[in-house]
Amino acid sequence: MKALRFLAAPLAVLALTASVSVLAHEGPSEKVTVLQDELLKNVPGKKAMMIEVDYKPGQSSIAHKHEGTAMAYVISGSITSQVKGEKAITYKAGQYWYEPAGSEHLVSKNASATQPAKLLVFMVLSPDEKVLIPLEN
């Protein structure tokens, strides 16, 4: 049992590092910070992640989809978001939205060219599911 504990910490760090690298993409991009990445004891086979996304003025994410369910909350500034099949909506600080698993997120950007924006994202997914999958052009 002690050996399992010693392995758990390095594996958790590896999983966290892998999760962050999945979020990275080429070119100037938003800053993504994984705040929590926890297996759900009451829902076997699922984990919860809490991610903070910081956008500089005018910055945007690449078009992508998530394998897991995502709920987003604007901490500061304003964010324009568009999921395939829906119109683009600009959310201000204190507003939030939901994206079902597999949604194609066509637009996610700071709505301001002069002010930064910050987004908190809570996701539920299987441990082997990808947080972000870039969409092909």
UniProtKB/TrEMBL annotation:
Tagged with keyword Signal: yes
Entry's transmembrane regions: none
Keyword Signal among record annotations: yes
UniProt-listed Pfam families: Cupin_2 (PF07883)
Keywords: Signal
Signal sequence, start to end: 1-24
Annotated Cupin type-2 domain residues: 53-122
Domain of life where this protein originates: Bacteria
Entry protein name: Cupin domain-containing protein
Organism: Pseudomonas arsenicoxydans
